[in-house]
Each structure stands twice: as structure tokens, then as C-alpha cells.
Amino acid sequence: MQDISFEVKPNELFGIIGPDGAGKTTLFRILTTLLFPDQGAATVAGFDVVKDYKKIRNSVGYMPGKFSLYQDLTVEENLNFFATIFGTTIEENYDLIKDIYVQIEPFKDRRAGKLSGGMKQKLALSCALIHKPKVLFLDEPTTGVDPVSRKEFWEMLKRLQQKNITILVSTPYMDEAALCDRVALIQDGKILQIDTPKAIVKHYHKSIYNVRSANMYQLITSLKAYEHHHSVYPFGEFVHYTDKRSDFNPADLNAYLKSKNLSHIYIERTEATIEDTFMELAI
Amino acid sequence: MKRFIGFIKKEFYHIFRDRRSLFILFGMPIAQILLFGFAITNEINNVDIAILDNSKDSTTEEIINKIGASKYFSIKQVITREVDIASVFEKGHVKAVLNFEKDFSKKLIKDHKATIQIITDATDPNTANTITNYVNAILQQYQKELNKDINVAYQIIPQTRMVYNPELKSVYMFVPGVMTIILLLVSAMMTSISITREKELGTMEILLVSPLKPFQVIIGKVIPYIFLSIINAIVIVMLSIFIFNMPIQGSLLLLGLESVLFIITSLALGILISTISATQQTAMMISLMGLMLPVILLSGFIFPISSMPMPLQIISHIIPAKWFIIILKAIMLKGVGLEFIWKETLILLGMTVFFMALSVKKYKIRLE
């Protein structure tokens, strides 16, 4: 991590967005007192991560990226265990996890190792929440989880926010960034930008075009060969294209692509996404 | 405290739900004791022998009856001619033939000397040797009885001369060694595996980011194994007493206390191993190569330390198991008290403190 500085407001849902290896996990481990920072200082819930690490350990919830629950314990036993070591009981904070736990309660006698990915994730979240932490750290909670469960998961986070919990969540998925209150875009240990998802997108000053044709591969190579191109990225069924010129006219591009023997050409102006911003910043 | 109990409860779930570790915990001690007790043994039982009695008088009859009545031999065949000796061996029916010379009784009375030839099948040299020793023992016993009533010493001269210790039972020698290995394995290997498993699964991260103190995690990991090791020690001692009729000469209390000391030494070693290994496999390899092998080879369990080359003798001093085996043998076989083994006990205690201190120092409250 280099030269990073950020502040998360109470009850905020703060996203750390970045590709694998960007330093998200390292950042979380420093903030959860698992790693020493080589230099610099950080406070979590008002406590210093080096000096007051014991106090931090009492007041945060941490869900590591790997599914780290006891596979040979049942759902209920896992939850009970984490409740006990944090000096509480399931009953005491049941209202906090109720929304999430009711979904896995029918399987409470099943061993955690035999749960599906989505259910494991819900159990892990329940376990991280059971002691009513002030700050919740979720390290890539949706990696390897199906789209439906991911959507549900974010809805759960939104609800948790209402219950006075500050949430820091990291994810490699750019589409999830839009669901956060504020996000930090991070790459190679550096923070590229911190702002609300809307503002980040607004900062994107170039016009983006969705381009499509019958032969996508040839389209990309042709676009990259185009002398005026600024950026070319495949994006779903389209290619996101930006031009260097401020007076760019899509008709010129259409003509160029036709000259390259591409058929069924489709060009349309579109809105920038966080991913576009990220790609722009990361270069 | 409630946290701590919750943690220990969780540890017991782990142990009882993992068939492999359950098998190592309880199957292995029993299997090893039985294996060493029954299979790997220098004793003989009910060996088939043949008799060639050339004199057929009262003395030979008495000796034959004594041999036949012992549990070591059963008389399978009685032959009458010397030439038959070769054929009974060839057929493989018997392991030994006892050949009484002519006029055995007369010679014994007249010359105070008579001879029995003990012919053994030496294709299995160990058994042959043992058979010879056992026959000699029975003959000497008989000789003693004869000399008790009569002033003139009668002598039956056996053709082999070897010192035989009728009390020598190999299982007595193995029990202390097996007990040491099992306690070490259960305590050191199982703890180190169970701690590294948490590291490997990532649950250690959560445990660290919890109000549970590191020493509570360690003690919580260790307590179930102390408990199980004590049960194991009891099972082993019970097996030796009731199945192998091994008398425990010394005080059972002292035996128990020394065992607890050694269990703690092993646990400290286990914690130390877990601090230097990142995966369960590494922990297992270090436990097996670093603990088991030296215990088997260098602790005096199988190979006597006094017959080792000097460098190995020196190395053997730093193996905790060596001292525990000395203590065990002293208590179990010699029946001595603490006044004779305080030195060994102190060495073991010192090692325990050292390993404990080292592992506490090496234990990380953070990730690497």
C-alpha cells in the first residue's frame, strides 16, 4: 500500500473496488489488526490499529475472503461458537441477524461444509454480525457467489446499514460499486479516486460509445488500429469506445469500420460506468 | 471463562467428528500395544517337539512330564530310533527333538551326571535359541528339586549354556516405549495439526480478530488433548496389566504424575511445531520425522543407547522421550520411587519449560 488516506463516515457503506492483487485484503488485514503497517497510522472506531489492537478486536466484525467457518460444525454450532467467543448469545442479537439467519435456519443442523456458496456466505455474515460490531469488514464477500445471492447480499448490507453499523466492503466487481455510498478505486496499492459512485461516473469527461458488429474480434482489432482511438474495451455484448477528438462524429467511425469490411455495425452513445472510470484511471 | 468453555466444546466437536483423528487417538494405542505384545515377541508358546527316550526310566519320564506339562511345549511325537530324528524335522512337524541318553537314571545316580541332547530346527534361529533356553530352564528347575532332598548333588548337564531369565517377557520392555510414542504422537501431532488446520482454513484470522486472547486459544486447543492423552495412558496401563499380566511395581500415582508431565512436554512441542508450520501436512511431517523417528531410534525404546556410537548417544540426551522411557521403566519394572528418578524428572521439567517459553515467544498474535 502506498500513500493512501481515507475516512469512512459512521453508518456508511464504503466500497473498496479494485482488481485482484490491488491490496484490498492487505488493507483489511491492517485495519483489523492482523498485520502491522510498515508506516503510517490508522484508527478504527477511534482506536489505533497498532496500540489499541485489543479494543479494535472487540468492536469489529471481520469476514475474510476465504470461507472461514468450521466445516465440521453445523450452522447453529458455528453461530453459537462465534457468539460465545465474543461473549454474547444468539438470542441477544437475534434481531440483527434475523433477516439473514431465517434464510439458513431450515438448514441449521447441516454441517457448514455441506452448504451451498450463497448459504455459506450468509452464515459467515451472520457469524461476523453476531456480536453487534461497530464496524464490519467484508473482504470480497461476493466472490464465487451466484448473481441472485449477490443481489440478495447487497440488499442485506443495505438493511444492516440502517442498524448503525459502518460497513467496509471490498469487491473486484465494478457493478457492485454503484450500490455503495462511497467507493475507493484501488490499484497496485494506491487509491485512484474516492467519491460517491455517481460523482465518480460524472467525473468521466469523455463520451463513451457502444459499438457492435458481426465480428467482434475483428472489430476490436480494427478499433485499436484506428488512429483517433483513445480507449477500446470489450464490455458485455458491446465494445466501449472513446475517441481522442472532442468533435468526434460517430459517422466517421462507421465509415472507417465499413472500410475494414465489418458488417452490421452499430454505434450508440452510452453512459459511463464505474468500470470505464476505473479503466481510465488505471492506465 | 464462558468463552473459553465454548472454545473447548468446539475442539471436542472437531475431534469427535473427524474419524481419522478419532482412529489415531483411540485405535492406535490399542493396536500398538497388542501388536508389540503379541506379534513382536521373543516368547514361545506350545512349540511342538518330539522325544527320543533311550533309557525309559523314572527320571526321564519325570522330565518328559515336566516338559510336556509346561505351556511352552507340547509333545507331538515320541520316536524310538535315532535315524527318525532327521525325518521328523524334514516333515516339519516339530521344532525340536529331545534325545535322552541310554541309562539316564543310572548314570545320574552313579556318575551324578547325565546328558540330554537338545536338537533344534535352526531355520528360525531366534526360536531355536529360545527353545534351548526354555528347556534348560525346566531342566535346572528339576535339578534343583532333586538336590533339595538328596545331599549328593546330581547333575543333568545340558549341552548349551546360556543364562536364562525366566522373568524376561518382551512385552514388559515394549510397554514403556509404546506408551511414550503414543503420548507423544497424540499430544504433539494432534495439537500441531489442529492449530495449523485453523490457519489453513482461515478461521485463525477470525479467532485473532476476536476478544479471545491468543493464550486462551492455545490452552483451549491443548486441554482436550491433555484429557484424551490421560485416557490413553490409562488404557495402555490397563491393557498391560489385564491382558499381559504386567505387574506395575511402583506407585501408580507417581506413574500418573510423570505421564502428565510428559504429556505437557509433548503438547509444548506440538505448539512449537504449529508455530513454524503453515499447513497441516507440514505439521504432520515435522511431527513424524522430527519426533517419531528419533523416539523410535534414539530413545532406547528398541535399540539400547549404550551400544550406540558416541555422537548418537549425545544426541539422545536432548530427546525428551529418552528420559521418559527411563522414568517409566524405573517405575513400572523396578518399582522405584521419586528419589531414584528425580534427576530425569527435573530434566523433563526443564525441557517442558523451555519448549513452552519458546512457543509462547514464537506464537503470533498477527498474521505473517
Written overview of the protein:
The mean pLDDT of chain A is 86. In chain A, the strands form three sheets. A six-stranded mixed sheet of chain A has the order 4-5-6-1-7-8, with helices on both faces. Chain A has helices at 24-31, 53-59, 75-85, 94-104, 117-129, 147-161, 197-202, 216-225, 250-259, 274-282, and strands at residues 13-17, 43-44, 47-48, 60-63, 135-139, 166-171, 182-187, 190-195, 208-212, 229-235, 238-243, 266-270. The longest helix of chain A is centred in the middle third of the chain and has 15 residues, at 147-161. Chain A has 283 residues and is α/β, with parallel strands linked by helices. In chain A, strand 2 (43-44) and strand 3 (47-48) form a beta hairpin. With 368 residues, chain B is an alpha/beta fold. Chain B folds into two domains: 2-40 and 169-367, no CATH class; 47-157, abc type-2 transporter like fold, CATH 3.40.1710. Chain B has helices at residues 2-17, 19-39, 58-69, 84-91, 104-110, 125-149, 170-201, 203-208, 214-242, 252-276, 280-298, 310-316, 320-334, 338-362; strands at 47-53, 73-79, 96-100, 113-120, 155-158. Chain B has a five-stranded mixed sheet, sandwiched between helices. In chain B, helix 6 links the parallel strand 4 and strand 5. In chain B, helix 7 (170-201) packs antiparallel against helix 11, helix 7 runs antiparallel to helix 13 (320-334) and helix 10 (252-276) runs antiparallel to helix 13 (320-334). Chain B is elongated, with a radius of gyration of 28 Å. The relative contact order of chain B is 0.10. The model of chain B is unreliable at 160-168 (pLDDT under 50). Chains A and B meet through helix 2 and helix 3 of A and helix 1 and helix 8 of B.
Give structural attributes.
heterodimer; A: 283 residues; alpha/beta; four-stranded antiparallel sheet; 12 strands; elongated; B: alpha/beta; abc type-2 transporter like fold; five-stranded mixed sheet
